[in-house]
């Protein structure tokens, strides 16, 4: 089932998410719904807060980055890079910092260059609650860092310069008011609710 994606401005996107255990209700179904929602919105990652749940869970499928882009520079290592990360902990971010154009399903129609470290070491549980510790680099590291930020209550726009943020202020306000056209279901903040 496709879930509505929470839009910029909703307080849940700013909340640090809570860990879950194997008894979390309907977890397998939630994971399946999150993948379906992500694919329908043509995303490569989706965190639980983006579907209204303040839990430490995100799904990623970076295989679209394996295909050649217009520069012929796809990353074949991402061909089968599909993961469920539960209760992840970034142990280390390292390597050269580099910029890459990022977007977010909760912040449609805004793409900006974001500087992040090129490598990350992350510990997480998979959908069967098996523990993994992996070192990722390049686009795989970036997708994981972007989604990890979501469960920490951070957004990619937080990493932009004050000038860039000021330039985007009007667009961000429009998104929070639902004044945006997207090809997927979104849930916009209720303006009558106190924040």
Automatic annotation (TrEMBL):
This is Peptide deformylase. Its EC number is 3.5.1.88. The gene is def. One of its GO terms (molecular function) is peptide deformylase activity. Pfam families: Pep_deformylase. The active site is at 147. Fe cation binds at residues 104, 146, 150. Keywords: Hydrolase, Iron, Metal-binding, Protein biosynthesis. It comes from the Bacteria. Binds 1 Fe(2+) ion. GO terms for biological process: translation. It catalyses: N-terminal N-formyl-L-methionyl-[peptide] + H2O = N-terminal L-methionyl-[peptide] + formate. Belongs to the polypeptide deformylase family. Its cofactor is Fe(2+). Removes the formyl group from the N-terminal Met of newly synthesized proteins. Requires at least a dipeptide for an efficient rate of reaction. N-terminal L-methionine is a prerequisite for activity but the enzyme has broad specificity at other positions.
């Amino acid at each position: 089932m496709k879930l509505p994606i929470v839009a910029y401005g909703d307080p849940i996107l700013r909340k640090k998410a809570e860990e879950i255990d194997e008894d979390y209700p309907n977890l397998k179904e939630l994971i399946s719904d999150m993948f379906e929602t992500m694919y329908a919105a043509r995303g490569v990652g989706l965190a639980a807060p983006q579907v209204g749940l303040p839990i430490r869970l995100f799904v990623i499928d970076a295989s679209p980055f394996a295909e050649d882009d217009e520069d012929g520079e796809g990353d074949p290592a991402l061909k089968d890079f599909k993961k469920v990360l539960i209760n992840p902990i970034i142990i280390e971010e390292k390597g050269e910092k580099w910029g890459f154009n990022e977007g977010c399903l909760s912040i449609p129609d805004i793409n900006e260059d974001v500087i992040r470290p090129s490598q990350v070491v992350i510990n997480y549980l998979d959908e069967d609650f098996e523990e993994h510790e992996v070192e990722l680099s390049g686009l795989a590291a970036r997708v994981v860092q972007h989604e990890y930020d979501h469960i920490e209550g951070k957004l990619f726009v937080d990493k932009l310069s004050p000038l860039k943020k000021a330039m985007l202020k009007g667009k961000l306000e429009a998104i929070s008011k639902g004044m945006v056209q997207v090809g997927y279901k979104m849930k916009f903040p209720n303006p009558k609710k106190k924040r």
